[in-house]
Every structure is written in C-alpha cells, then in structure tokens.
C-alpha cells in the first residue's frame, strides 16, 4: 500500500511534532512504504493533502487534531483514498468516534494494522450546501459561541478549555428564533443552540448527538430550546453522558437533509471550524469517505 503520513506540527500545542517520530516508527512496523510530510501552515496542509489525493495515494494518515482531520476530509471525500487519523490535538472527536486509542502511538499501531489488512470502513459525511464537508458535528448558537471563544483562548490545553468557555458564554447567553426544517418536519421555536451530528461528539468528547451513527445514511439533530441560565447549568453536566436529550427543553430529530435559520446572527461551526452565518443547508452524503476505524465493518 502506498501511504503518506501528514504531520500537522502545531496540533495540540506542539504535541503532534513531539510524537511524530514515534508515530512514524509505529506505522512502519506494518507498512512497507510510508512517505512523510510536515506542512507548516493550514494552506500548505490543504495543498499537500490535495496533491496526495490527486496523485492517487492509497492512504493518507493525518497526525493532528480535529482541524487537521477536517482538512483531510475535504481532500479525501468522494475519492478512493483511505483516511486514517492519529489523534494529537485538543478535542480529537473524529478519532474518538472511530474508536481509536487516545495515545497517538497506540492509535498509530491500530491504524497501521488496519491499513496493512485493508480493513477500511466507508462512513457518511455531512455536506454544507455551497460549502465543505464535515465528519463530526455542525453546531450553531450557544455551542458555536463556545467554539469562537475556545479558538481565541491560549490556555488551558485540552477539554478544560471548553469547560471554561462554556461558563464564560453563559454570562452572555442570548436566545434566538430558530427554524429547523427536515424532509419530514419543521421546528420553529426560541432556542439556545442546534447541533447536527454525523458522529456523536464535539468539544473534546461531549456526546451532543449521542445516538448519531456515521453509517446509517442520516444526520442526528439536537436542539436546546428556550432555557434559562439556571436550566442550562442543570443540563450541562448531563451533556457529558448524553442524558441531556431527556430534558424537556431538548428536542431531537433524525433526517437526511436539514436547513437551519435563526434571527440572532448565529454562526455555524463544523468539526470545530468556522463555516459561516445561518441560514445553512446541510445534507447527509452516505458512504462518502473511506476511513480506518478500530473496528471495521
């Protein structure tokens, strides 16, 4: 198999760069051929990934966080190139959804074994009309405001950053009139947030769409309706377990296509990356990408 390792050295505040040698060695234990690339900017990462896919590289292994994974998804979607993730970022939500170990070297061994045995798995992606692909969750409202704050923060590192951003955004809580339309139903309500999940997790392991399955041809939608700060404080702890969907203020839908609009100037984020203001049209693209997971089907 012709494979390439793309190291995103800034991921995880330099964690990817620190483990790159060990990850490369672990991959080479099972792979006969592995080329390595270390792009130094987001633009260079995009260019390297596109060049590799256009050249027919059989597998691209990305060492980095969800931002690096998001870039790789854009390049590998609807191609035959297999995408493998070795987590070394802050959130690592795609790697988590694929069942990969948290430790990058252990994950690299799982990936290498999967590639050597050609144990690829085809999963769905979300597609934003007129925009890009996403593999995990697209969110807007309170959730995206948290994302915007997290992206401005330099401390602390890891999931704690999201916890601090959540507390800060509670103080600036604003509801908006939200309209969610699917192929079969419409919700129109005062709401705090909406999340559209291809996989369950965002924000470093929060299962906001706990039942989302990236191989079922649908997207899961979680809407947090009108809720006070006190209500949200009560809901937030249950987010870590997925029990929030049982709260009366929370509505869930499942759909092949979703449109979301709000009157509060909400910004959409997908895979932790800024997409743009609502309204947005999103659809599920079944089986749009080949990946390596801990358990292939």
From TrEMBL:
Cofactors: Mg(2+)
Keywords: ATP-binding, Hydrolase, Kinase, Lipid biosynthesis, Lipid metabolism, Magnesium, Metal-binding, Nucleotide-binding, Phospholipid biosynthesis, Phospholipid metabolism, Transferase
GO molecular function, one term: ATP-dependent diacylglycerol kinase activity
EC numbers, comma separated: 2.7.1.107
DAGKc domain mapped to chain residues: 1-132
Domain of life: Bacteria
InterPro entries: ATP-NAD_kinase_N (IPR017438), Diacylglycerol/lipid_kinase (IPR005218), Diacylglycerol_kinase_cat_dom (IPR001206), Lipid_Phosphate_FormReg (IPR050187), NAD/diacylglycerol_kinase_sf (IPR016064), YegS/DAGK_C (IPR045540)
NCBIfam families in the cross-refs: YegS/Rv2252/BmrU family lipid kinase (TIGR00147)
Record PANTHER family: LIPID KINASE YEGS, SPHINGOSINE KINASE
Family, similarity comment: Belongs to the diacylglycerol/lipid kinase family.
Protein's UniProt name: Diacylglycerol kinase (ATP)
